[in-house]
Amino acid sequence: MFNKILIANRGEIALRIIRACHELGISTVAVYSTADELALHVRFATEAVCIGPPESSRSYLHIPAIMSAAELTNADAIHPGYGFLAENAEFAGICEDHGITFLGPRSETIRLMGDKSAARETMMKAGVPVTPGTQGVIHNVQDAVREAEGLGYPVMVKASAGGGGRGMRRVETPDLLPEAFVQAQNEAQSAFGNGDLYVEKFISEPRHIEVQVMGGPDGKAVALGERECSIQRRNQKLIEESPSPVVDDKLRRKLCDAAVQAAEQVGYLGAGTVEFLLDNEQNFYFMEMNTRIQVEHPVTEMVYGIDLLKTQIGVHAGISVPAWVAKAQLRGHAIECRINAEDPLHDFRPAPGLITSFHVPGGMGVRVDTAAYAGYHVQPHYDSMIAKLIVHGTTRESAINRTQQALEEFVIEGIPTTIPFHQQVLADPDFRSGRFTTAFLESFQYQPSEEPA
Amino acid sequence: MFNKILIANRGEIALRIIRACHELGISTVAVYSTADELALHVRFATEAVCIGPPESSRSYLHIPAIMSAAELTNADAIHPGYGFLAENAEFAGICEDHGITFLGPRSETIRLMGDKSAARETMMKAGVPVTPGTQGVIHNVQDAVREAEGLGYPVMVKASAGGGGRGMRRVETPDLLPEAFVQAQNEAQSAFGNGDLYVEKFISEPRHIEVQVMGGPDGKAVALGERECSIQRRNQKLIEESPSPVVDDKLRRKLCDAAVQAAEQVGYLGAGTVEFLLDNEQNFYFMEMNTRIQVEHPVTEMVYGIDLLKTQIGVHAGISVPAWVAKAQLRGHAIECRINAEDPLHDFRPAPGLITSFHVPGGMGVRVDTAAYAGYHVQPHYDSMIAKLIVHGTTRESAINRTQQALEEFVIEGIPTTIPFHQQVLADPDFRSGRFTTAFLESFQYQPSEEPA
Amino acid sequence: MFKDKIKELIAIVEESNVHEVEVSTWWGRKIRVQKNSSFSPNSSSAAEVQAGSPLTVTTSSGQGPEVVAEEPVSEAERDYSKLHQITAPIVGTFYRAPSPDSAPYINVGDKVSAGQVICIIEAMKIMNEIESDANGTVVDILVENTNPVEYNQPLIVVDPS
Amino acid sequence: MFKDKIKELIAIVEESNVHEVEVSTWWGRKIRVQKNSSFSPNSSSAAEVQAGSPLTVTTSSGQGPEVVAEEPVSEAERDYSKLHQITAPIVGTFYRAPSPDSAPYINVGDKVSAGQVICIIEAMKIMNEIESDANGTVVDILVENTNPVEYNQPLIVVDPS
User: Fold this and answer.
1) D5 touching C (Cβ < 8 Å)
2) Which of D26, D56, D57 shows the shortest C-beta gap to B359?
3) Is the pTM of this model over 0.90?
4) Pairing relation of β-strands A4-7 and A27-33?
5) Lowest CB count within 10 Å: B384, D4, D92, D149, which one?
C-alpha cells in the first residue's frame, strides 16, 4: 500500500480523497493555490504545499509545480480527482516516468479513450453496441445520402474532430441532408481546421445512463450498476441517481456486461465510467468512457455500500478488486443534487462570494460531500460546485422525499445557490414519475420563489 | 396514516422525528420551553407552540401543557421521543383517553415493564432467560444464605424497589453475606421505604447487549439484530455499535428469538429494546425492556438500512411491519459516538454555553444527528448530549478508522465536548480488539491532549 | 422574550463602558447593540436587529444608528413596550368572559387591580381564571376571544401610571 | 499572503470612515481591524488576530488596542515587514550556489540589483535561476541551503533604501 498520496485537486473531491487515504492509514499532501489558503483540503491533509497563484494554469494545471511538490514531500502516488489533470495522458505519462503512481488508468488508456473515433472502434471490437453510423469519414454528399438511407432518418452529421455541439447537424429527411452536410463541413473546417464528417443514427428521446466500472491489476473488471444522469443543463449534470428508474435487472445485466467488456478490452485499471445513450426501446449505445472517478460516484457508493475511492486506491496498489465488491447487491435508491454557487434566476451564472452561513442537513440516509463552511469565500477561479447532497432511501419515492427534507434544511447564506432549483425539480411530476429524457431541463421552467430563499 | 404529529421532546430526537414525519407527508407540531425559542426543532416543524418556562417540570414534562398544545393544534398523535414522558404510563394513558395516539406501547405495557420484578416474571413465563435468582422476596439472612448456596458465588443482593445502584451489594463469599444483607436492607429501607430484598447470581465480566424489536399491530414482533452498549460511564452509554464484536450469527439468532418472545409475550406495539447481559461464556440474561425508541437506534438503521422511526410511525397507524423489514440483512458495521457538552477533564461535568463554531464531518458512511449549530446556546436545563456521530463501514475496523477521521473533522468551539475522549477510546487497543466489558471505562484513563482541542 | 433580550442588551451596553455587543444565530436573528461612537458616550444607543448570519465581515460605519427589523414589529407592540403586559401563564384557549352570554371580565379603559380575574384560559377542559398581576388601566386586549394562546404570550396591556 | 491581508485591511480602515472591519473563518483566523473609538479618528489603528470563531458575542472594550497573534510571528518577519521580500516564484528546492563547490550567489550585506541571479530553485531536475526583482542590500536570507520552498515563500530580504 502507499505511504503518502499527493492530491492534485481541490474542493470536495480533495477532501473525499483525503478521507479515504486517512481511513487506509495513508498520509496525504494537499497542494493549493494562494486563493485556497483557507480551503479545507489544506487544513485536513497531513501536509500542504502552496504551488502557485490562483489561475489554474499556473497551479492545479501546472504539471511541473505538482511534480515538484510530489518530489519534495516524497509522495509515492498522485490522485488527480476529477477535472484539472484527471484525464491528461501527458501528466499520467510524466508520473509513470518519475516512478510516482498515477491513480488513474495508464496514459495510453487515457489517450485512447480521449480520441472519439478510436474509442468507438475499440468498443466495436469489444462487441459493445455503438450508435449505428458510417465506418470512417464521409467525403461527399452522395456518400452521406447513401449511408443515411441505410441508417434510417433522422440522422446526425458530425465532425470527426468535433466537440461542444459545433460541426453537428440533425437531419430529419433526405432532402435536407445536402445543405446540412455543407454547413457542418464548413463549420468543422473553420472551428477545428478539419472538415472530416461522419453520419450517425440520431437517438431520439435518449437517456444518459452510465455504468461504474473498476478494473483490477489482473485485467479483470467489475461493474457496479448504472447511474441515471439525464437531468442535465447544457451537458452539465445536475441530478444523478442510482439505479435508473427505467433500468430493470435484465437491462442492468446487459449494461454491466457491456461495460465490463469495454473495460477489459483496454485492460482498464482503476475507477472508470462507461457512458451510454439509452433509447426509448431500451437499446443502448456506447457514448464515451470517462477515465476518472466521477463527481456522481457517491450514488453508486450509497446503493452498493462500497467505498469506490478506497477500492480504487487498492487496485492501484496492486490489490485485486475484493470478491465482496464484485458480489455487492443493490440496496435502495440514491439521489445526488449538485449544489452550485450559481444563480438559477439569472441563467445559472456563477456567483462566487462569501458564504455567511452554512448549515448542512443530517440524519438517516443523508450524506453531504463539501469543502465549504461558514466564512468560506467561494473562489471565482474555479468550478462553482460547492456541495453534493447525496440521499439514500429504500425506494425512489422515499429517497426523493428525504432529499426534499434535506434541501429544506440546507441553509447557505451570502451567495445564491441551486438549492431552490433542485427543490422545484424534485417536486416536478415528470421527474417524480421517472419519465424523462436528457431534454427534461430544456422544457423545465424554474419559478422564482415567492418568499426570499 | 396520521395527519399531524406533535413531538413532546426537543433536541436531536425532535428533529429526527420531524424528518421522518415530513418524509411521510405528515405535518408536525413542535412544543418548546422559553429556553428553546431558537432551537432547531422549533424552526423545522410545521408549527410550534411555546408550552412553558425552561424547567422541564413546567414544560416538556408538564402533561396538561402538552395535551393543550395537541388539542389546540389538532394533532392526532404524540411522539414522546426518549427521556421526558417517553416511558410515562400515565401520559400514555391520558393520550389514550383523549383519543390521541401515543406513539409508544400501550400504557399497561409501559407499566408492566417499568416494574422490575413483574417484568422479570413475565420474561420467565415467555421462556426468556433471566439472571438466576430467588423467586420473590427474601425475608432473612438464613434464607439468603441458602438461596446463594444454590446460585453459586459471587451473588448480588438487590433491593426489590431499587435503582441507581442503591440497596445493592456484591457478595463474594458466604461469610460476607450476613453483613451485606443487613446493610442492603437498611439502605433500601431508608432510600425507598421498602426493605424487600432478593438475591441474584452475579454475572462476571458482562457485556451489555440489546436487541431492537418492532411490534406490529397484529401482535407479531420482529427483531433487528443487536447493539453492543458496553462502553458506559456510570450507566451512561457513550459508544454503541451494531453488530457486537462478540456476537456471531448463531448467538444473534438466539438473542433475536428471545427478544421476539419477550415482545410477543406482552403484545408489544411499536419500537422497543430488550436489554441483556452477556457473560463470558455467551450466556445471556434479560435485564430490562426499554419501551421507547432509543438514543442509539441509528446504529441499527445504518447496518440494516431501515428507518426505524418511519417503521414505528407506520405500526402505530395500523400498518404491519413490512416483510422487507423482517427480512433485512445486516450489512457492514456501525458505531455511534455521543457528543456531549461535558468536560472530560473534569469528571464529565456538563458544560452548557454558547457554541461559537460548529462544523460537522461529512462524506461516505458519515451521519450526524444533531440540533446544534454555530450560535446555539447549549441550555443548562436539559441533557448535555448535543450530537450523535454515527459512522458506517464495511468492517468494524474500517468503521473505527472512519469514525476517527470524522471526529478529527468535527469542530465544536465555545464549549468543551466529549470529542477528544472518543478519539482516545477509539485509539485504545482493547477497544479496537473488541475485547471489553461494561467495566471498560472504569479502568480507561483519559489523557488531556497536548495541543489545545 | 426576544424583545426582552433586546432591552436587556441595551441595558448592558448603557450601563457599561463596552461600546458594542452582538448576539446572533445562523437561522435566528442577529441583535447588535452599539453606542454610536460619533456621539458622546451614553448619549444614545441603537438596537439593530437583522436576519442573522454567523459573522464574517462586519462593517460598522460611523454614521447614524440604523434599525432594521426582521419581523416587522407592529405599531401596537412598539407603543406598549414601556407599559405593563400581562402574559399567558399556560397554553390554552383564551376567553374574555366566563360564559358565552356573560359580559367580558374587562374592557379597554377599565381599571384593574392585582388579583382581579381578567380572562379565562381553557386547558384540557379546565377553565383557568387568569388574574391581573398589576394595578392600572387596561390599554389594549391583544388576543381575540376563543383564540389559542401560547405560554408567555402577551394578553392584556395595562398602563400602571 | 495572510500578512498581506492584514496590511490590506489596515489600509482599508485607515483610508475610510469605517471604524471596524472583521474577517474570519471558523477554522482559520479571525482578523479584526478597528480604529479605537477612544482616540481621535485616524490617530491609531489596531490589528487584532485571533483563533477564529464565526461570531456570536463580540465585545469590544473601549480600552487600548490589543494584539493577539494565533501564529506567533517571528521577530525577524515582524522587522522586515517594511522591507522588500523576494519570494519563490515556483515550488522546489532552494540552493544558494550554482554547485556544491561554488560560492553562494549572494551573502547578507551584499548589494543586489534587479535581474541579478540570487539563488537557484530546482524543480523536476531543472535548475531555475531566480533573479532579484529589486535593487538594494541583502538584509537576510530566510531559507537554508537545500531546503524545500513553496510558491510565494519569502526567500531573501532586501533593503531598497
Assistant:
1) no
2) D26
3) no
4) parallel
5) D4
